[in-house]
């Protein structure tokens, strides 16, 4: 793959990663709930889900899913239901005491499972890869080039959310967030519920 083409691919992946959505809310919630390590675990697990959809796209299965309305609708509704459930959980935890960075309010396993499910249940990822990532695919593309596409999408996503988790747990940032954890949980809960509603009613 030419360097210029890879740079275009990288730019597209960066735009996709930094776009606000349920993934950012999830990483924030687990970082506040358990500190830096659960936040990083959530970031890396989410990147695995992104890598899975990137793999489906290079194999042609992403486009196949998008062409079958019932399959796509099932993923959409399942993703919306899961986002709503996470939103309710965040709202219910909003009244808890201020969280300590080393608390067990959220575990690494919980962070990993929720991050993968949020990634796999996000229909915007399917549309993103089918609409944007597919433009870099050709019928005669080598296996190496396809691997580069998958790894670029996965590593870009993981690097961004790891950066978010590390930044949130900075010695000056985390105490400020922890002091306002009560309201931040409520804001995250509302965000997740609104995102779930947006998925149900449709999105651009």
From TrEMBL:
- What parts of the sequence cross the membrane? 6-28, 40-64, 70-91, 112-137, 143-163, 183-201
* A GO term, aspect molecular function: amino acid transmembrane transporter activity
Q: Name one GO cellular component term.
A: plasma membrane
Question: Which residue spans adopt a coiled-coil conformation according to this UniProt entry?
Answer: none
Which superkingdom is the protein from? Bacteria
What Pfam families does the database record attribute to this sequence?
LysE
Location in the cell? Cell membrane
Instruction: Tell me the InterPro entries matching this sequence.
Output: LeuE-type
Where does the UniProt entry say this protein principally localizes?
Answer: membrane
Q: Does this entry carry the keyword Transmembrane helix? A: yes
Membrane topology (UniProt): Multi-pass membrane protein
Keywords attached to this Swiss-Prot or TrEMBL record, sorted alphabetically, are: Cell membrane, Membrane, Transmembrane, Transmembrane helix
Entry-linked PANTHER family:
AMINO ACID EFFLUX PERMEASE RHTB FAMILY (PTHR30086:SF16), ARGININE EXPORTER PROTEIN ARGO (PTHR30086)
Q: Supply the name of the protein.
A: LysE family transporter
Q: Which organism is it from?
A: Candidatus Halomonas stercoripullorum
């Amino acid at each position: 793959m030419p360097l210029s083409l890879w740079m275009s691919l990288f730019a597209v992946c960066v735009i996709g990663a930094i776009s606000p959505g349920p993934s950012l809310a999830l990483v924030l919630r687990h970082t506040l709930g358990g500190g830096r390590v659960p936040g990083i675990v959530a970031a890396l697990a989410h990147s695995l889900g992104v890598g899975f959809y990137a793999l489906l796209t290079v194999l042609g299965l992403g486009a196949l899913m998008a062409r079958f309305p019932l399959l796509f609708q099932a993923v959409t509704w399942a993703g919306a239901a899961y986002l709503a459930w996470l939103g309710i959980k965040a709202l219910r935890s909003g009244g808890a005491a201020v969280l300590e960075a080393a608390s067990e309010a959220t575990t690494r396993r919980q962070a990993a499972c929720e991050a993968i499910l949020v990634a796999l249940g996000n229909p915007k990822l399917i549309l993103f890869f089918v609409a944007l990532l597919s433009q870099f695919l050709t019928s005669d593309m080598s296996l190496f080039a396809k691997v580069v596409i998958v790894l670029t999408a996965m590593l870009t996503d993981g690097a961004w959310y790891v950066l978010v988790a590390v930044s949130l747990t900075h010695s000056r940032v985390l105490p400020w967030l922890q002091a306002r954890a009560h309201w931040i949980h409520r804001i995250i809960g509302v965000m997740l519920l609104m995102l779930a509603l947006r998925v149900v009613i449709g999105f651009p």
